[in-house]
């Protein structure tokens, strides 16, 4: 019967344990000197060797021929414990035996001396799953155990273990394994099993193991069973449903260029090939995390990369983002991935996530605005932008060379008749035929309620004051109807087209219009009255 690789290559001695030298060396020293504790607590993430060390320790304390603190694995005690036939060494799963009754039974049996070996050992895995009543039942015997009794507790969630239990155990923390240590062990297993494992595939499996050797060995077992020849990086991607470092880098590059079309096309291709959506978002999250580390710590950050992309790909992408953009991208990815558990359509959620990544303007939260501002600041600081072409303004003639306007004071008659000057009957009046043309075109655009007031002999009269056309209404009622944007704006546009220059339009009541002519002092007084707010600002 086939045996899984992680079970077949489980460590049998402390020297076989990978990456936990501080723990194994301390335990070996205690075994050699005989200074053993009655209760141990092993903590750490999954697949780091907690249960393996507990089994090795249970064999070592009962081994008939130990070697430098390691069990011999050849004596009757070691063989009995390995086979699970020894009734004095029990491994209990607290996840399924977490009630107070189970612990009471354990406590009642623990007082009896062992029948086969020197010490009775209880290995309680996932001890944090015990109920509070079960912990209280276990407390007394852990506090004052018999000489022949040893407890080895293992947990992945230390904060759930009561302080009363913690204070009575020797605690050993198992750290995450380095990718180099996992890769070395995977190469050894592949050699022993005759598996052709490429170096790139080995590094990829070590990264995907996320610090747990058991996960890495299980992934190797899965990929090797799917391989007709050797295990390659492409095979790992296809077997595990991953996008791959190159596709992930291309997708992130499209996000940096705000190219939503390319990003969606890449995503659609990966989805059509059966890639797992959650795994794809995890890869993007890991890449954005790597880029953020490189952005904030360019030199030391190289040792902290997860390896989801090569160093060259990461360095090529890091300058395309600001730190604020990477923070926003990471937050959006994590938010989308966390919503997968209750999502009705993961594909739509992923596509909306990509659109949000490519266009920060779709979000109006603080992180999106900060990302847009930081990108603008970074662009301005780098100088890699082209200023907008200046608007060409029509050259204006000097005042001395400009012909006087029709409403200027003391305009000679010969100037009014000069070519290019609109004919006026006298200053302050519209040119001949102007009003009739304006009324004819204006009636086609203004509201019906105002059309009846516009005629040659109607209650609204025109007065041209330079570039200002004043509509003089006979009554307040007429002024209220005419003095609206729906009338003034088309009037200004039509008047500008008829006169060939920009004309402004305003409406006033008869008797309140500005008096034309006068000397310079009168003009100054009129300017001050009409622009009192500007004068006040200048004084302040």
Provide a descriptive summary of the structure in words.
- The chain has helices at residues 5-8, 21-33, 50-60, 76-83, 100-110, 132-143, 163-166, 179-193, 199-208, 213-226, 233-240, 245-256, 260-272, 277-296, 311-318, 323-338, 346-358, 366-382, 413-416, 434-442, 448-451, 476-482, 485-499, 520-530, 532-539, and strands at residues 39-44, 89-93, 120-125, 149-155, 170-174, 460-465, 468-473, 504-509.
- The chain is built from 25 helices and eight strands.
- Helix 3 (50-60) runs antiparallel to helix 4, helix 5 (100-110) packs parallel to helix 6 (132-143) and helix 14 runs antiparallel to helix 16.
- Helices cover 49% and strands 9% of the residues.
- With 540 residues, the chain is α/β, with parallel strands linked by helices.
- Strand 6 and strand 7 (468-473) form a beta hairpin.
- It is elongated, with a radius of gyration of 43 Å.
- It folds into four domains: 5-174, Rossmann fold, CATH 3.40.50; 179-240, Helicase, Ruva Protein, domain 3 (Orthogonal Bundle); 245-378, Up-down Bundle (Zinc Finger, Delta Prime, domain 3); 427-535, DnaA, N-terminal domain (GMP Synthetase, Chain A, domain 3).
- The strands form two sheets. Strands 2-3-4-1-5 form a five-stranded parallel sheet, covered by helices on one side. Strands 6-7-8 form a three-stranded mixed sheet.
- The longest helix has 20 residues, at 277-296.
